[in-house]
Amino acid sequence: MREKKLRLIITFHTTTAAMAFEKYCMANGLPGRLIPVPTSITAGCGMAWMAAPEDRPALEEAIQKDALAVDALYEIVH
């Protein structure tokens, strides 16, 4: 069984926004990956971006700088 750790979870209103975020992160070398939204979170679409909490500043900077469409940011044990 996988060890549960504190994770940064970014949710999106639409699947299109989640896929655009993935493409942006891959093109810009930002950490993380798409996952199904954890059951402890309610989100507009079924996909979320998961990264380590220490990656939050870089991801928040990218979201603000390039006005990326995100719903919310959470830190949960997952």
Overall description:
The chain has 78 residues and is an alpha+beta fold. The protein has one domain (11-77). The protein contains 2 helices and 4 strands, in the order E-H-E-E-H-E.
SSE layout and pairing:
Blueprint: E1 6-11, H1 15-27, E2 33-36, E3 47-51, H2 56-65, E4 72-77
Antiparallel strand pairs: 1-3, 1-4, 2-3
Poorly predicted regions? none
Q: Tell me the number of strands.
A: 4
Q: Beta fraction of the residues?
A: 25-35%
Radius of gyration based on Cα positions: 12 Å
Helix content: 25-40%
- Count of all domains: 1
> How do the strands line up in the largest sheet?
2-3-1-4
Task: Briefly characterize the structure.
This protein has 78 residues and is α+β, with helices and mostly antiparallel strands. It has one domain (11-77).
